[in-house]
Amino acid sequence: MATDFSLGNYLDTCRERVELALGERLPDADIMPQSLHAAMRYAVLGDGKRIRPVLVYAAGQALGVPPDQLDAPACAVELIHAYSLIHDDLPAMDDDELRRGRPTTHMAFGEATAVLAGDALQTLAFQVLCRDDSTPADAQTRLAMIDALAVASGSRGMVGGQALDLEAIGREIDLAQLESIHVHKTGALILASIRLGALVAAGAGTQQVRQLEHYAKAIGLAFQVQDDILDVVGDPDIIGKTQGKDAVADKPTYPALLGLGEAREKARELIQSAIDSLQDFDEKAEPLREIARYIIVRDR
Questions:
Q1: Using a CB cutoff of 8 Å and minimum separation of 24, what contacts does 86-94 make?
Q2: Which residues contact 32 (CB under 8 A, 6 or more apart)?
Q3: Residue 175, domain member (yes or no)
Q4: pLDDT for 239 beyond 70
Q5: Average pLDDT in the 135-140 region?
Q6: Which of 12, 143, 159, 183 is deepest in the core (most CB within 10 A)?
Q7: Is 1 within a domain?
Q8: Quick one: pLDDT at residue 103?
Q9: Candidate from 123-137, 199-213, 221-235 with smallest mean pLDDT
Q10: Residue 278's domain is classified under what CATH number?
């Protein structure tokens, strides 16, 4: 196993790569309709964790795929994520005024333009998977990638999870119900990120893919547990959004259900399960292992 791997350098490299790739694939802000395109670029570009595209690169790397062949799926999953954040922040949903330390898209451009920007980013994600020739994929593979991202984004994935989350506000739910919400709301798109990276690797074995999928499911839940913890203890200047919003909105969270200490232990158990699932992979999977560890020590 590699001993000189630097997660910080790897994250920076992947973030710079996907930032450039996103900028190339987004419409320029001076192209009509200018306000819509400006809002799209505002929502996508800038200071973001980019965990999902990083996972696309890391999953592909674990299976021997060079990064230039992963730019399109990395962009597609981040475009979907950005669209979801625009809509989540709207007054009708989470009603947030800050995202990544600056005004949310609807605060900067108005609610109507924000809704349209989210809609346009969603469709652009699938256009990228359909047409982008940087990924050497045949029609069948492209269809599988589109299907994976569509399922993860829709009523059986992220959107369904958001609906369940809204329905749970003010209600008492158990741990299984909370996990079901977040398997859909957060975990589905993280799982899709891993699947997209694996799909580009034409020679990936069934067992390898299953192990990567187990990894993705475990870190997906851990990611949400840590988000819930940061809502309680995070510094608003670092996390880039208002602290304590979940408690004010009476939303069910892991700390509220388990207590802060048990929530942290739950996250650690999930991360260990994720790392254990990669035991058959060589040093090319080191980024995946370190990303798992990073998820529960991150402060934003």
A1: 86/43, 86/114, 86/115, 86/117, 86/118, 86/121, 87/115, 87/118, 88/162, 89/114, 90/114, 90/115, 93/162, 93/166, 94/245, 94/249
A2: none
A3: yes
A4: no
A5: 93
A6: 183
A7: no
A8: 94
A9: 221-235
A10: 1.10.600.10
